Amino acid sequence: MAPATPFYAIQMTSVSIERMPSKIIINANGSIRVEGEFEITDADGQAFGLGGRTAIGLCRCGSSENKPFCDGSHRKVGFQSVCPARDLPPPVPKP
Ligand code: FES
Q: Is 58's C-beta closer than 6 angstroms to any atom of ligand 1?
């Protein structure tokens, strides 16, 4: 089965994470794990109730039935994406 088309970049535009410090881990072939002190809101700024969690997985494969959270579906669809850490170029100044 072909891996699901990743759509997480689109989803991230409607989810914001606030209140540092936090750590974001891009798991190999899986979720984006967020740990620490954070808040996740929808596009209207309404906070998701996280039940006191201090760590959670966000779906980046596009297959979760509980978006934006990971439900483990990435394993069923064979999602493959490994993102080694790297340095990005400086941001391009906006005109
Ligand atoms: S990353 Fe999509 S279900 Fe886990």
A: no
